[in-house]
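This part of the workshop introduces the protein records we will be handling. Backbone structure tokens are a discrete shorthand for how the chain folds in space. Once this layout is familiar, the rest of the handout is easier to follow. The record below serves as our worked example for the rest of this section.
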Amino acid sequence: MKNKTIMVCDDDQGILDVVELMLEIEGYRVIKVLDSTTLEEQLISNRPDLLLLDLWMPIVSGEHILKSVRSSSTLGDLPVIIFSASIDGASIADNAGANAFLSKPFDMIQLTSVIEKVITQSKA
């Protein structure tokens, strides 16, 4: 399970830093992306094992990115977890093709358990 690379995209630097710390403690390699407009090229060049994606971001939303990833021939099967404080986040994530949804705020146990579940399912 460990030694996996997780890309985290959020427009809040504080959230990126906290999530990076939480995941590195668990043994994951973390790539942080603050600007959602560069995310797709980052995904292609870094090929992470999983994408943790905020739903509400300026310019390009997480929903738009996820739909684009799902329609991509190279990225289509990438496991994606959407995280958001939005009340509608779970249904938006589900409709866009997310593997899982995580409601903000979350703790380290919730985060790692959802990540491990999604990574395990994607290998099945």
User: Anything to note?
Assistant: The helical segments are 13-25, 39-46, 62-70, 89-96, 108-123. The radius of gyration is 13 Å.
